[in-house]
Amino acid sequence: MAFHRAVPNSVGHLGSLLEAFLPWLGLVVVMLLLLALLRRSATALTALLLPAAAWTHLFGGLLLPGAVPGPRDLVVVQHNVSDENTEPAGTARALADAGPDLIGLEELVPPALAVYAQTLAPDYPYHAVRGTVGLWSKHPLTGARLVDIKPRGVGETWSRGLRAVVHTPHGDVAAYVAHLPSIRVRASGLASSRRDESAGLLGKAIAAEKLKTVLLLGDLNGTVEDRGLAPLTSRMNTAERGFAFSFPAAFPMARIDQVMARSAAVRQIRTLPPTGSDHLPVTARIALG
């Protein structure tokens, strides 16, 4: 069991709050190691070996070089474009310039939605939108439908889940685009119950998916270490390389924009330059098969 699991989630979701910023604990360990060296304290150095080893076990692999691109790779971009984005055309062009096969977008609202559709159409002739989430593809799409991930107590117009089949040159892939509810940090702790409930609904939908290969692109409002996303991370592979902190765009502290896969490997994930959104786009390379 990872050391951070020892922090309980029963009161104020403190475990999830810690896990949201877990990679940054590496900086604390480094500073303590430097202090121990300056003080020439063998006892302090010995005591710090365990947290240093734990951090390296959890995150050291993300720092390694990515694998060489393969012939069955699929490149995807995930971006919460923000419903307050005043530059939808520029945002769409920036995402298309990255040359992905698939683009998953959240917070699509009129009239910006029409701008995204028009700007992306030349390079991405296939697209599907349900509610405020959408998928653009270079490859044909079929079977687009709504995925109900609405938690209890949320209005009927709330629609943030989409599933479609992508007919890639290497076989059919079920692609999901999702935007889980936001979380809030309060005096009582982390308010994430609705996010966790929505993650559970999405996890059940993916578990019931009949196609073998599944991709998930979305603003999940949580890091892959966050136990609240366990219904997803327990079923899907996460990025093997890269931190790709995506939020907030002005000073990224955590990656809450995720790309996950079932029966495929997320070889590497990285951020793209800022757009008009408060999130950074992320792009990932998926090894199919």
SSE blueprint:
Elements: H1 14-20, H2 25-39, H3 42-59, E1 73-80, H4 88-97, E2 102-106, H5 112-120, E3 126-130, E4 133-137, E5 141-146, E6 161-168, E7 171-179, E8 184-186, E9 189-191, H6 193-207, E10 214-219, H7 230-233, E11 257-262, E12 264-271, E13 282-288
Parallel strand pairs: 1-2, 7-10
Antiparallel strand pairs: 1-13, 2-4, 3-4, 5-6, 6-7, 8-9, 10-11, 12-13
Helix pairs in contact: 2-3, 4-5
Plain-language structure description:
With about 290 residues, the chain is an alpha+beta fold. About 25% of the residues lie in helices and about 25% in strands. The strands form 3 sheets. The chain has a 6-stranded mixed beta sheet with strand order 3-4-2-1-13-12, with no helix packed on it. The protein has a 5-stranded mixed beta sheet with strand order 5-6-7-10-11, with no helix packed on it. The protein has a two-stranded antiparallel sheet with strand order 8-9. A hairpin with a 2-residue loop joins strand 6 and strand 7. It is globular. The model has no long low-confidence stretch (mean pLDDT about 90).
Count of DSSP-assigned helices: 7
Order of helices and strands: HHHEHEHEEEEEEEHEHEEE
State the end-to-end distance: 30 Å
Radius of gyration over all CA atoms, rounded: 20 Å
Q: How are the strands ordered across the major sheet?
A: 3-4-2-1-13-12
Give start-end ranges of low-pLDDT stretches.
none
**Share of helical residues:** 25-40%
Strand content: 25-35%
Q: Kindly report the oligomeric state of this protein.
A: single chain
What is the 3D shape? globular
The number of E-state strands comes to: 13
**What structural class should be given to the helix and strand makeup?**
alpha+beta
Mean pLDDT: 90
- Mind summarizing the main beta sheet? 6 strands, mixed
